[in-house]
Design goal:
By secondary structure, this protein is mainly alpha-helical. It has five helices and no strands. The radius of gyration is 16 Å and the shape is elongated.
Length: 132
């Protein structure tokens, strides 16, 4: 949970163009986490002879990176550290989609909105880094 002082710090930062209003983030993430869960369940339950190990590994790596970003950015106010995490997240989600696709095209498709959103979040993180 982000404490109010962290949000006060955030609102003092110069924001990049296209920064959405703060109220948009909770519903977008609720939808994305639902799609991520559906993608994972779809992958797990897909009956196949194809190997799934890398799909599992990449899924959990991207999930850990996702959960690391908020405390790095808002908790530690480490915009550069958050940038490093989100770049690793971009690559891990890309490869996660690829691995899911090899087993279940449907499960991979559920991750695409998440990938697009984190690419946008990467732009925002870079913008905050450069402007501050």
């Amino acid at each position: 949970m982000i404490c109010m002082t962290d949000l006060n710090w955030y609102y003092t930062l110069n924001q990049p163009p296209l920064m959405p209003p703060g109220w948009i983030f909770p519903p977008v993430w609720a939808i994305l986490y639902t799609l991520i869960f559906i993608a994972f369940i779809s992958f797990v339950t897909k009956r196949t002879n194809k190997p799934k190990l890398w799909g599992y590994i990449l899924f959990f790596i991207q999930l850990v990176l996702n959960f690391m970003w908020v405390p790095m950015f808002f908790g530690m106010h480490n915009v550069f550290g958050a940038f490093v995490i989100i770049i690793m997240l971009d690559f891990s989600v890309f490869y996660n989609i690829r691995e899911f696709f090899l087993v279940s095209k449907k499960s991979a498709c559920f991750l695409i909105p998440y990938f697009v959103w984190i690419l946008f979040a990467t732009y925002l993180n870079i913008g905050v880094l450069v402007l501050n």
